[in-house]
Amino acid sequence: MGAAPRKAAEPNQKLVDARLLQEFRAICGDSGLITSQEELKTYECDGLTNFRVLPQAVLLPGSTEQVQAIVRVCHRERIPFVARGSGTGLSGGALPVKDGVVISLARMNRILEVDLLNAQVVVEPGVFNLEVTERVASHGFFYAPDPSSQSVCSIGGNVAENSGGAHCLKYGFTTTHVLGLEVVLPDGSLAHMGGRTLDTPGYDLTGVFVGSEGTLGIATKITLRIVKRPECVQTLLAAFGSTSEAGVSVSDIIAAGMLPAAIEMMDNLAIEAAEAAVHANYPDCGGLLLVELDGPTAEVEALMQQVDEICRRCGAGEIRVAQTEAERAVVWKGRKSAFAAVGRISPNYIVQDGVIPRTALPRIMTEIERLSTQAGIRVANVFHAGDGNLHPLVLYDRRIEGQEHAAEALANRILELCIEAGGSITGEHGVGEEKKMMMSKMYAEPDLETMHRVRCAFDPEQISNPTKVFPRTRLCGEKPGEYRPHPLETAGIAERF
Amino acid sequence: MAPSRSASAAVTGIPAPWDDLRAIAGAEHLRVAGLGDDVAGVQPQMILEPGSETELAAALRCADGTGLSVLPRGGGTKTGWGNPPVRADLVLSTARLNRVIEHAWADLTVSVEAGCTIQKLQNVLAENGQHIAVDPLWPELATVGGVLSTNDSGTLRIRYGALRDLLIGVTIALPDGTLASSGGKVVKNVAGYDLPKLVIGALGTLGVITRANFRLHPLPRNVRSFTFAARGLDDANRMMLAIQDSRLAHTGLQARFAGRVAPAVDVRFEGTDAGLAAQEKALRKLAAPAIVTATSDAVWQARQELWSSADSAAIGKFSVLQASVAKTCDRINHLADSQGVRWSAVVQGTGLGWLRAEASTASAIHQVLQSLRPEIEQLGGSFLVLHRPAVMPAIDAWGNSGDAFPLMLSVKRQFDPRGALNPGRFIGGI
What we know:
By secondary structure, chain A is an alpha+beta fold. Chain A is 34% helix and 19% strand. By secondary structure, chain B is an alpha+beta fold.
């Protein structure tokens, strides 16, 4: 390990040479090092499949000590590294860096401790999101953040992206549920942030690490809060003539002083796709609203009656309430499969993720419709309506000349609309590689410069996922990612928003 | 309060920029610090009250450039928290930055200036049936910026989360004059680093908060509070765990301890009449054989009451696992008894507790606090000293931050390289 650090690589000199590979092999063992071109291809992209970069090597450490040893070598040699969980991210956050290595946390997949008395679970980063709930469900607990990829996405990846899900309207995001972290910093040292108890003294480093998209180090141990399952859950499905009508009822529900566990909306095109894919038996309508209430039974029943009345008053045609787990599962299946389902009605499409203040919804919908007509590009809309998180699906056919370009332009324009409305360029998918150029449209230079100070405090050499989140230049536009279903989705193993 | 002493920035040899500060904020808004302006017992030189965030940023830059130390202040209710500053030149008050900028009630968000008091803000929000789901100490005086900087949320936290879960955007002024915003006005937003979380509880050592955006909640339709007596420390802890483990949707859960007196457990519910009736019934069943009685909402003031007539008392905040509350209180009891110290505490179901210790000799209180911290840290918790009698020997307010401290120092140096903001008041001498 005593090799002298190199200053800079010559143009054709590889940063990761045979000597270093040998060093990595000594750390992770033969089975923990991937270098063959064939195998490296598995890691060339994440869920945003149109960005692809082959890394120099992929390392599969099995312990915190191994992660530290790898990162120390990277730090000494100034080799950029990208941490990777399950690779289901949708913004290219786990896209490799050409001269760097990928550190996969897939082998660190143990649930280390379950403390029901204090409602906490300690996990390694490679544990799948849903595994946490599965482990504690028989005791009446669940892990609240529920991205649709939850059966395969990792907790480490959720921490990096601050993942949300349909139920974060009431329960909050990943950051709400992470109590403490063990982190390998970009110089290989170890830091413990937060802990098992609340308000640990000092700066809330846990708060800034969650959602930093792998740019501040690698979480190797995560303490999660788990939540007691509510006594009663009911899901209402209401069919409206348009998304605007559905939108009015959302406003009325909020104005009536209710905080549902989830409020979701789909437009006609999205309904059509979901029906084609999973036969959710949704009513054929212009705007479908899905409202989920949970809590003590008497409370839920009283409020659900009011939701029902509000929806009828706002013009809902058909209203159904799913009461059993099985009925709820069918309702949610259609919603959660909407992204992949769009593949049934369009050969290519872009999944966009933007946020607007909820009240701007009718105006932005009208504008998206206008832009869609103008460009001759169809847009299917799926929303987390309660918190204004839009997922427009921009449909195109790359075989038709000019359509791909027009679709990308439209997808970008939608994000600009979100910014103009006082919203955000991403509600849950992250900035990653895809939207880094948009950051300078959302934030002013002093804002970005201030965020960059945090980066410098954690990673002065900028070797931890170095090319993500921050824009390199402010001059050019960027290429939004086309959506291609992940092989796991196609196989029906995973779903995602 | 400790006898005030004066500490100034004379080390730089640069003349103090009072004229420049007058030019920035107007001569009438710069005054000599007087009685009651001390910060943790240290007397500052001057008080500046800028009228806008750009004035505040310019003043901060001017002060930092000339080597002045700057002590941000909101309502001044918690200036005794933290360690005494090692230098105290200029108090930067947000008193004039007190506007509610925008209450987007239909979006359940608000944008507010840092110097607005919590009570004023809640009054404005209540006009549209909403509130920020926090109940911090002294809301009529405490400001948004001060409450954020000291991370003081309250009893609603158990249901609605802490300030970190409610703050969705923040603007801060840095010592070099940069005004930086992060987060935004929407509840869901993962673009860029979460700086709002970084400044919560940072005691103004990274920047001065000038404005904040919060997510809001509807005001509850009905609120009912209940109380029952526990048979002892263990029983109180057991009952709190049982309520936490139940399917009740309580919005408040605390236990009040006072030496060897039987602890009281308080529970609060919010919601529809039907929901409340069902929850009350479930609580009575859960707590039996203890008799549950309806009580006034004033019971939730218990934490604030720890501060009444506290001149000869010390007050600290501890954080332990919710299952370790009885063990913690048992240790407090033991240590207090051995020193002849009277104690009382209010502990929330989350494991956060506030302890008041008083005795005729301050050294006895000091002894209890000194011994208590390592014991709580051994249980995996932490113990902050918030208030101490004037004559008590010095004690570090913060305790141990573990192996993350070098990183905290590194963050501080990036934001405030010259150490202008609240020097020495934060953890580890930051």
